[in-house]
Amino acid sequence: MKKTAIVILNWNGREMLRRYLPSVLRYSNEDAEVYVADNASTDGSLDMLRREFSACRLIELDRNWGFAEGYNKALAQVDAEYYLLLNSDIEVTHHWLTPMIEFMDNHPEVAACQPKLLSMADRDCFEYAGASGGLIDRYGYPFCRGRIFDTVERDNGQYDYQQEILWATGAALMIRSADYWAVGGLDGRFFAHNEEIDLCWRLGIIGRKVCCIPETCVFHVGGGTLPKSNPMKTYLNFRNNLTMLYKCLPDEELPHVMRMRWFLDYLAAFEMLVLKRSWGDFKAVFRARHAFRKWKHEFRADREAIQKSRVVSEVVGYCRFSILWQYYVKGKKVYSELLPKALGGQ
Fold it and tell me: Which residues, 6+ apart, have CB-to-CB distance to 108 below 8 Å?
């Protein structure tokens, strides 16, 4: 058994794999094994992998299970102390694994970590999907050290310190296999989007820590499966985010947050229609809220179990302020302007 299993989930990403898999194979530790789990691709990915990347171990799934359940089914077939979930559009650098493995070895209280994510398009800028570690505001809106909404910062070393965070990006997530399965893995019902935030939040609730380790960085293309503006992505983000809040919020927070989200979600929908002229995104928000109401009862047992497992009253990175208010009203566009508010959670 290798100590670390790097598992890349693929669905019709043949050219991404052909371009970026070589760096993963070249720069990964000898004590790491590289897997590609294929979600029933139809673009010839498996034939290409067998022909050009015989060093990879292949996991063939019978259909497209999505990001969340695809990883659950793949990781169930992998034996390693650490899993590293890695997107197919990631370029890694020399000795990229070593700082994360050493940190995890020396900090048994930490369940998961991520490297610093920089943009492939502009290698001096953070990448939208995870930047230098994620948090959420009181109403469930995710933001990062290095990215708030569409404001992405240049990397000038301002976040080059290890930091406990609420969520690590699913684009490059290292997690102890024992912790992954202790909380049931990713929620496969989400299919894609918000699933890593949900997983990390559940870890935080039981007292496990999540951190960003900026001593190592990777470069991410981003948007490899769905473009940034896409009604299906909007639908999944809103539906899954509401579901995550329902599962993870403490009893005293849940009613107020859900009332505010009703207002904020419909406000966002009309903003998409009036300002962005996006009828598809407008309808996607309504569909997402309807879908959440329809399947909410399926998560009642999950919520009860999560709340019973709670060992901490305050999860680091769950910030008790509105990032919308801070960003649009107070004009605080970058994470450093929120300090110490973000760390203090007030």
Answer: none
- Expressed in angstroms, the distance from the first to the final Cα of the chain is 45
Question: Which pLDDT tens digit goes with each residue over 51-90?
Answer: 999 999 999 999 999 999 999 999 999 999 999 999 999 9
Residue (of 332, 324, 336, 319) closest to 155 by Cα position: 336
Q: Can you say whether the dihedral through the CA atoms of 310, 312, 314, 316 is positive or negative?
A: negative
Burial of 339 (0-12, 13-18, 19+ CB in 10 A): exposed
Output b/e per residue, 83-103; b: 16+ Cβ within 10 A: bbbbbbbbbbeeebbebbbeb
- Phi/psi of residue 146, each to 5°? 115, -10
Give residue for tokens 């009309």.
Answer: 270
Are the C-beta atoms of residues 193 and 237 closer than 8 Å to each other?
Answer: yes
Q: How long is the chain?
A: 346
Amino acid at 196: E
Residue whose entry in the numeric block shows the structure tokens 């789990």:
37
One-letter amino acid at 104 equals: M
pLDDT, tens only, 182-235:
999 999 999 999 999 999 999 999 999 999 999 999 999 985 444 556 899 999
- Give the pair of three-digit tokens for residue 260: 């505010």
Q: What is the maximum alpha-carbon separation in the chain?
A: 56
Chain center to CA of 321: 21
Chain centroid, CA 302 distance in Å: 20
Q: Is the pTM of this model over 0.90?
A: yes
Token couple for 5: 């299993």
Are the C-beta atoms of 189 and 239 separated by less than 8 Å? Answer: no
Tokens at 309, concatenated: 């497992």
Residue with tokens 């490059």: 172
